[in-house]
Amino acid sequence: MTINLGICPIGWTNDDLPELGAENTFQQALSEMALAGFTGTEIGNKYPKNPVELHSHLEPRGMSIASGWFSAFLTTKPFEETAKAFKLKLDFLHAMGSKVIVVSEQGHSIQCLDRPIYDEKPTFSEEEWHLLTTGLEKLGNMAHEKEMEIVFHHHMGTCIQTTAEIERLMEETQPDKVSLLFDTGHLVFSGEDPLYIYNKYANRIKHIHFKDIREERMNNVKSEHSSFLQGVKAGVFTVPGDGMIDFEPIWHAIHTSDYQGWIMVEAEQDPTQANPFLYAKMAREYMNQITGL
């Protein structure tokens, strides 16, 4: 496997904010992704839940499923409850040919709540850290039964967001059981250095999200004490090449590390304000310029 380029459906239809892109069908999204030059996508809520049916829409467009999001509640619910839901998503993604499953710990998360994202960031207790790390390793073992890997998604509004939290998670989990998803937008939004994270954990990064940040709008989220979803609506995120992040040194680090897997464009925006097809084309052209892919 080499490096493949994909794009997430969240620019067309937003699972956390269903009013964004409510008018857009998954067929439109898949067609426009392919037309823009991408070959992969992640699972969106509008996608068919039957693997055979979903394959029938992907194959004619030359598209495949790179991964999909799973919300874990290892710190706030019994492990068996998370494991049951995880197995269902894992089996589906395996049937779609995915090699990784994106895991985000949603215990105490405020990412979908109307609470100021910078002012009320949640944290774990020592007991919850233990539940998280041991639980993730168990999920990693389950994924290995399907010859897949879990990739943990550090995310704004959760207890694994900052450099220190990512470092602790990596230190307290076994590398062969828990891998990392590298998301440029969430790191910069949190005030972290994405290049530092990539260089430190290159050998554990097995999935990548490229998103950019509009600096002024990010600063407004902080000064106006906005929630994460208010920031999304305000246009904090955009596609690579349209914001403040310099992707060239990041790409150099990725390329020289011999990374193999997917780089996914993921830029949740209001599609009535940011035409998803035009932004997908913009992202694809920019990524070709800096990567040659």
From TrEMBL:
Task: Quote the catalytic activity from the record.
Answer: scyllo-inosose = 3D-3,5/4-trihydroxycyclohexane-1,2-dione + H2O
Check the record and name the InterPro entries matching this protein. Answer: IolE, IolE/MocC, IolE/XylAMocC-like, Xyl_isomerase-like_sf, Xyl_isomerase-like_TIM-brl
Keyword Manganese belongs to the record? yes
A GO molecular-function term, please? myo-inosose-2 dehydratase activity
**Cofactor requirements of the protein:** glutathione; Co(2+); Mn(2+)
The segment(s) forming the Xylose isomerase-like TIM barrel domain are: 33-275
Its EC top class is: lyase
Q: Which Pfam families match?
A: AP_endonuc_2
* E.C. number: 4.2.1.44
Question: In what pathway does it function?
Answer: Polyol metabolism; myo-inositol degradation into acetyl-CoA; acetyl-CoA from myo-inositol: step 2/7
Any idea which UniProt keywords this protein has?
A: Cobalt, Lyase, Manganese
> Which range is the signal sequence, renumbered to this chain?
none
Alphabetical list of PANTHER family matching this protein: HYDROXYPYRUVATE ISOMERASE, INOSOSE DEHYDRATASE
Q: Which family does it belong to?
A: Belongs to the IolE/MocC family.
This protein's name: Inosose dehydratase
List the source organism.
Lactococcus muris
Q: What is the lineage of its organism?
A: Bacteria, Bacillati, Bacillota, Bacilli, Lactobacillales
